[in-house]
Design goal:
The complex is a heterodimer of chains A (320) and B (289). With 320 residues, chain A is mostly helical. In chain A, 73% of the residues lie in helices and 0% in strands. In chain A, helix 7 crosses helix 9. The longest helix of chain A is centred in the N-terminal third of the chain and has 39 residues. Chain B has a single domain, classed as 3-Layer(aba) Sandwich (Rossmann fold). Chain B has a six-stranded mixed β-sheet. In chain B, helix 6 packs parallel to helix 9 and helix 9 packs parallel to helix 10. The N and C termini of chain B lie far apart (40 Å). Classes of the chains: A mainly alpha (320), B alpha/beta (289).
């Protein structure tokens, strides 16, 4: 026993040496500077957001205390005290409806085709690259496209009067926004589908499932959270875009009302929240507060839409 | 037609009869094999992965494919149920005759092939679903009639997993241990009542105890199923297989290409005790690979 125990002295020397080698490292100055730079960047971005938000919230609060929910239910007006955002809310929600009904099914279907069915050849690669490029095209270009195709070509009949889409109408704007977000939906859905591990597909094929069964029962449910994330991005983008809908004529008119049929309403004039905000921002200083309030309403709607999609996504994830 | 071909061709690597097989079985060589491979070549694009494989897979036995990495044994295994179809660049030539039908004939539906010839993969790959849904998936897509609960129970019992999971069938399969997941994958393959089970290195991701359980399971399953297993583990091949095929890589320095070839195919006992090819001997004695 005694022979096996090491002498006390050498042991303490070893301990000291270890301590010194652990403690004597130089301070990592560059790393510290880097950390401070990162923190400052974060603070700067937050400060900008806080400044903008406080500006908006101030105006929104004054409108809320003065007029309460009237601001939400009133239509447009030449007087700042009477102007409300109801037309804008209705327009924005209708346009989002177009996006959901048109861009989502077509976009997700295209993504499934590109990932699961298309042969892996040059043409497919070419198409993929171009869809990716389309996501980077400025929205004003989509506005011009909508103006040329939906407003002019499909919108005017031989007598230069309202045709299929009714010219500068809800339909034209909805179609334009749907086309605008289509590449985003395709790319994000395709990425979600691609992220489903090969092993899951192989397992499905291994028990005799067809390609359709593997896609429908295994790949799509696994990709659903990712696809939903893409749709969130698409909805937010569609709600926030001002340039294309201004080009298509959102600023000139409001929702037609009266005893029109549903189709006639869709073929009629329209507005949406970004257009309302744009219009009011150009008015006199009396409109400053209502502009802030309208921005706040748009923010709330966007957050609500995002929240719904996140909630749906979490639900899908839990089902597994 | 196919029967004629089988009789006229001579399989060089296969001895006419082997001491292990019963005299009765040896006399009915054609009925006795589930697969007859005739000059099978696999290319991935310009890469020649496997060359001129001709072999017979006996019914209700375990056939092990062994050999060093890159010798094409997994590639060959994936020809048995047309899993190579999923790789767009893969091209299979020659014939893979399954019970008299060439699986690569144009009229053959790969989906039907895979339903009869199941597969267990290298890494356990449960669906991200409950244990019950994992097992029920195959029968469901194949329209197998009968009480699904009984089907699931039977498959899990056959895979020696029932007692461990019977109280948590509705729980996610990813909650199981690696070995349990792999046995669940075997149960999933069994659930569609296949004829053959292909196993592509089924134990390579498992610890020795879990591997031993899978090996026991294979030995039990061969009473009902034909099993073809690819393994890196020579001891495993020696323990479980009835017949063993040794593959190796032929390296062509001039064209810097590597091609898998079949060196020797015989009873496991012969391969591991008295191989006739020096390359086999070098491999099994651990001199390379």
């Amino acid at each position: 026993m005694a022979a096996a125990a090491p002498p006390a002295n050498p042991a303490s020397i070893t301990t000291l040496a270890v301590e010194r080698s652990l403690a004597s490292r130089k301070r990592d100055w560059l790393g510290q500077v880097f950390q401070v730079v990162l923190l400052l960047s974060l603070i700067l971005s937050l400060a900008i957001i806080v400044f903008l938000l406080s500006n908006v919230l101030g105006g929104a609060w004054r409108v809320w205390t003065d007029r309460g929910t009237d601001f939400l239910t009133e239509g447009g007006s030449r007087q700042a005290e009477a102007a409300g955002v109801w037309q804008g809310i209705r327009g924005t929600l209708t346009l989002v409806g177009f996006v959901v009904l048109l861009a989502f099914p077509i976009g997700i279907a295209s993504a499934i085709y590109l990932e699961e069915y298309a042969p892996d050849n040059t043409l497919t690669k070419f198409i993929n690259v171009n869809i990716r490029n389309l996501t980077g095209v400025p929205s004003v270009v989509y506005g011009l496209l909508g103006l040329a195709v939906f407003v002019r070509t499909f919108g005017l009949d031989r007598n230069d009067e309202g045709g299929l889409t009714g010219g500068k109408s809800v339909i034209s704007a909805g179609l334009t926004l749907a086309v605008l977000v289509l590449p985003i939906v395709i790319i994000t859905s395709a990425e979600a589908i691609r992220a489903v591990p090969r092993s899951i597909r192989e397992a499905g094929y291994g028990v005799g499932a067809s390609r359709w069964e593997v896609t429908r029962m295994l790949v799509l449910p696994s990709a659903a959270p990712g696809i939903l994330t893409g749709t969130v991005l698409a909805i937010s983008r569609a709600m926030g875009e001002a340039a294309p809908i201004l080009l298509i004529g959102a600023n000139t008119g409001f929702f037609s009302s009266g005893n029109q049929s549903f189709v006639e309403q869709l073929q009629g004039t329209f507005t949406a929240l970004p257009a309302v905000i744009f219009g009011w921002a150009r008015e006199t200083s009396e409109f400053r507060d209502v502009t802030a309030a309208a921005i706040f309403v748009l923010l709330v709607i966007t957050v609500l839409a995002n929240g719904t999609a996140v909630w749906l996504r979490n639900r899908f994830e839990k089902q597994w | 037609m196919n029967q004629l071909t089988e009789q006229t061709l001579v399989t060089v690597t296969l001895p006419e009869s082997s001491p292990e097989r019963s005299g009765d079985a040896a006399n009915r060589a054609d009925d006795d094999s589930v697969f007859s491979l005739r000059g099978v070549n696999v290319h991935y694009g310009s890469f020649h992965a496997v060359r001129d494989i001709t072999m017979e897979i006996p019914r209700r036995q375990i056939t092990a494919l062994i050999g060093p990495s890159g010798c094409g044994k997994s590639t060959l295994l994936r020809c048995f149920n047309r899993m190579n179809d999923l790789i767009t660049t893969a091209k299979v030539s020659g014939s893979v005759i399954y019970n008299g039908e060439n699986l690569y004939d144009s009229y053959v539906d790969a989906v039907e092939v895979r339903r009869r010839i199941g597969m267990v993969f290298q890494k356990p790959n449960p669906f991200p679903k409950s244990i019950y849904d994992n097992i029920a998936f195959g029968p469901k897509v194949n329209g197998i009639k009968g009480n699904m609960d009984d089907l699931v129970e039977q498959a899990l019992r056959d895979a020696a997993l029932w007692d461990e999971v019977k109280d948590k069938l509705k729980q996610n399969a990813y909650g199981l241990s690696g070995g349990q997941q792999q046995r669940m994958c075997i149960a999933r393959a069994i659930a569609v009542q296949p004829d053959v089970i292909l196993m592509d290195e089924p134990c390579s991701a498992l610890d020795p105890i879990a591997s031993a359980r899978i090996e026991d399971l294979m030995t039990e399953l061969k009473a009902q199923y034909t099993i073809v297993i690819v393994t890196h583990n020579m001891q495993q091949a020696a323990r479980v297989s009835d017949r063993t095929a040794f593959f190796t890589v032929e390296v062509d320095e001039a064209r810097s290409s590597r091609t898998g070839i079949l060196v020797e195919f015989d009873t496991a006992q012969r391969i591991f005790t008295n191989p006739s090819d020096s390359r086999t001997e070098a491999y099994i004695t651990g001199r390379f690979g």
